[in-house]
Amino acid sequence: MADMACAAGLSRAHFSQEFRRAFGESPHAYLLTRRLERAAALLRTTDRPIAEICMSVGLQSVGSFTTSFTRTFGRSPSAYRTAYPPAASHALIPPCVLRAYTRPRHRTFREDTANPQA
Amino acid sequence: MITVGSTQLWVHDQDEALAFYTQKLGMEVRTDVTVAEMGDFRWLSVGPVGQADFSIVLMLIPGPPVMDAATADQVRDLMAKGFAGTLFLSTDDCNASYKELSARGVEFVEQPSEQPYGIDSSFRDPSGNHIRLTEVR
Prior knowledge:
The complex is a heterodimer of chains A (118) and B (137).
Chain A: H1 2-8, H2 12-23, H3 27-45, H4 50-56, H5 62-73, H6 77-82, H7 95-102
Helix pairs in contact in A: 1-2
Chain B: E1 6-11, H1 14-24, E2 28-35, E3 41-47, E4 55-60, H2 69-80, E5 86-90, H3 94-103, E6 108-115, E7 118-124, E8 130-136
Parallel strand pairs in B: 1-4, 5-8
Antiparallel strand pairs in B: 2-3, 3-4, 6-7, 7-8
């Protein structure tokens, strides 16, 4: 807040007042909304734990995060996550990569050598 | 119509790359998924804020059997030399971006300089990938 007020060349109180007049909400409310939107995106597109997502968007308390998130999106972070397709559906893993990573690691005959040129 | 959706960069360490691209370059995480069935393969992508239709996949250099050790060494060698591909970033103010990124600890290889096409600079990511930061005129 102090940094933004300074960048705008206004006192903190005046900045807050002018921000609210221009955008219809306080800088604090705006910032919280942006953080919650970012958290919602991370809930949909990553499989990171909810506490980690809370911290990564700049919030300190998982309890407050859950309350604010539920108020904004109408459901808890975990319910929100389960309402969407799993995050893995966003991973565009090509079939060749999938096949390479799922090949059996322990085979009884060795078609691969340590050095394929050998 | 064909457009560019994603490109891939090899990285030595995905957590290190993630911190660099998000905290230093200011990009956002697009996808971060670990697939247990694929031996904890991690699909990690980031992208510039405000350019939702493009992402960079930060791919860990695999080991055998996906990639044999000799090939992985060759990839690492090329990356160390900065020859494993280049990412061309655009900025509307190269000097301002240079100052901003430098303040965040990005070490530039080339400081902003006038070129026939604009102002250009370059740095490398923690894995050695060559990144150019250009103000195109």
